[in-house]
Structure formats: structure tokens, C-alpha cells
Input
Amino acid sequence: MAYTPPQHLLEVLQKIQYEEALPADDPRYVETQTARGSEKTYSRLAKKMGWDPADPERFFAPSQSHVLFFGHLGSGKITELRQYAQRLNASKRFCVIEVDAVEKLDVNNLQYADALMAMAQALVDTLQSGGYDVSAADLDPMRQAVATVVSTRSSGRELSAELTTAASAGGGLPGLFKLLVSFTASAKTNATVKTEWRNEVRNTFTALAGAFNRLIQGAETALREAGRAERIVFLLDGTDKMRGEDTQRFFVYDAEQLLAIQAFVIYTAPLHLKYAGTLAGKLDADLVLPMIKLQEQDGSRCEAGWGALTALLLKRADRSLFASDAEVASLVEHSGGHPRELLRLLKLCCEYADMTIDAAAVQRAIQQLASDYRRFLEPDDYALLVRMDRDQLHGGNDERTRSLLYRLALLEYNDGSWRRSHPVVRLLDGYRSAAAQGSLPIG
Output
């Protein structure tokens, strides 16, 4: 059945989910690689894992590759990675296993111990659902290591009956899966248990990492024998949503623990982390999903960007809901090329509009979004944004700049070579005042 966009404002409103990443086969997906200037990103990612899509018969896989995939929050990183995953899976070289840190873990308090267990759980789930057989010799070390962690008593109290049952579960994939589910579920909801288990993981990490690596090797052997894939790729979703201090601990202080896993792992990462200058050299940190361009650096119109965002908008709300093409164009323009910002504007329009989205509803939506930025921007922020818009240079990466990138007041395009302030920010009095002082024409 052909896809039909929602044709009622309330239906549009209820279907807008900011955190939703589209499945690879979702009819709402819009190809944006040309609009972003990211045509080479997929092939670069594949090459990091030893495979060239242009020369598919050759495969020179390294022992491991830990890749950070940067981008603005809400820019569509996982939606794009799921497209890549579909193609990697189809190659029969890779089996991509997605691990949703938002669903399985607590992204407000995430450490490598939690991620490792969630990765193991996702791997075992994939093996079980696919009917793949892994030898006891490859399974047992991981089961014993996890059972040791789960059996740790919390503050002198006995484990709950559920955890005791899991710790004493039988062997094989079902027993290991039950243990791992117990870990991730309890660690997400019980802070005391989480702390003690993390300490246990830290104290026994060498053995645990070795057991996990053996499980991965056994799983890859099973996949290879079945003709499904040669290597496993873990895709961690949600690691770009951690708080600042947790981001530093996860990717910087505990980087050696991440690198101890002999696997291919792709982590989503917030853009500001790339510019902090603290990342470990062994983490591959040069892939960025750029923003969709509505204009080129010289100010000329980028037709690919306008086309992509217009299509994205009209797959979320039927054209009949807009009074004219002018309203569609205005929403696209004021999104700055950021997909989530476009959805935010659409949501506000649905709340303000009566029967159709007219010019008045669009203007109120734009003003409301601008007011959200007014609440946190400071005078020095406006001055910096004006300077970057005027000079059209990279503008450095000091703490204030990184904060503006994180909060989307400053948007980055292409390979990071140029930036622009968010269009709605340029409507604020603070920006206009700073621009007037610097004799900058306001567009």
C-alpha cells in the first residue's frame, strides 16, 4: 500500500516524535547525502572495516575498529546509519547489531560496563532469534563472568529471587540471555545495584573483556558457517545523548576499556565532543554527518537541500494542510537545514493553526522557536554568532563555541569548514543589536 502523509493537523501532531529514528525501509525516509555533501560517508565507513563497496570481492578486515559518528543532536545520525546498516548487511560481509542505549540503559548515567553488557545482550538475542549455534566453549566464559557480577550482593542484602534465578540459570544461549537481561534491567532502575555491579566489572574487566571477545569470535564463526556474515558490527544508538561529564568519562577516561573489545563498533557522538581535543587517538573520530545545506558557503542557494527538506516536511504533513507553498518554504528556511528543528516548527504550527497552516501560524511558530533560544543565549553568545556570520570562517572551537554547537544556536555544514547561526536566532533582538554594533547587514 502506498504511503499517504497525515491529512489532519491533529494526526500530524501526534505522529511527530523527536527521538524517533526511521527504520531503513520507512517510507518517510528522504535521501539527503547530496544535500549534506556526505556522498562518501558510507564508503568511508565501510573501508574502516576493511571492505570497499566499489570493490566488493575483496575484504581485508582489521581485528577491530571503534568509530565515532558525529553530528548535531537530532540531525538524523541513526536514521542514516540504519541505511548504511541495511547495505552492510546485504553485502554478507557484516551483521550489524543495533544497541539502543536510550531503551536499554540510562543515558543520564551511562558507563562502559553498562554498554558492554547491553552489547552482549543484543548479540545473544541476535544469535537466538537467528537460530545460530555457538559452542559451549565460546559461551561459558561469558556466562561465568556475568554470573559473577550479577551474584554480587548489594549492600549486604541477598539478591532478589529473580536475580538469584537468573544467576543460577542453565547454560546455552537462553541462560546467558537471561543473565544479561537481569543485568541491564536492574542496572537501569536500581542505583545501588548499578554502582556495585560497575565496581565488580571494573575489578574483573580483563576477564570479562576476554570472555566477551571469545563470545564474539564464536558468534562470527557461527555466522560465517551459515553464510550470513563474516564480521559483527555493533551500532550504539544514544551515546550522543549523554551529559557532558558522562560523555567525557565514556569516550575519554574509559576509552581503553572500549578499545579492549575486539569488534567493530560504531558509536553516535555529539558534535561538540569532536572539538574538545580530549579523545584517545585509537578511537576513529573523523566521520561527521553534516547538516543539510540550504545554501552554500558563498550564500548561493543549495537546491538539493531545499528539495530534501521540502520532501521531508511533506512526508510528515500532507500538502493540503498548508495554505500555500510559501508556508512550506518559510518552515524549511527557518529550520536551518536541521531535520529535528523542522519537525519542531511543524509541531508548533499544528498547535497554533486552525484548519490549515497559514502565514500567521508559521510566523507564531518561528517566534516561539526563537524564544526558546532567547532563554539561554547571553550577550557574548550573540557577539560570537555575529562574528562568525560576518567572517564566514571556521571560528575556532573554544568552550563557548562548543556550547553553541551543542545547543544548535550554531550549525555546522559540509565537512565542518563553515558554520552559520540558526536562522531563528538571527531574528532575536540580542542578535540584531550585536549585528548593528558590528555593522553586519541582517538577512
User: Anything to note?
Assistant: DSSP finds 21 helices and seven strands in the chain. The two ends are 44 Å apart (CA to CA). The mean pLDDT is 89.
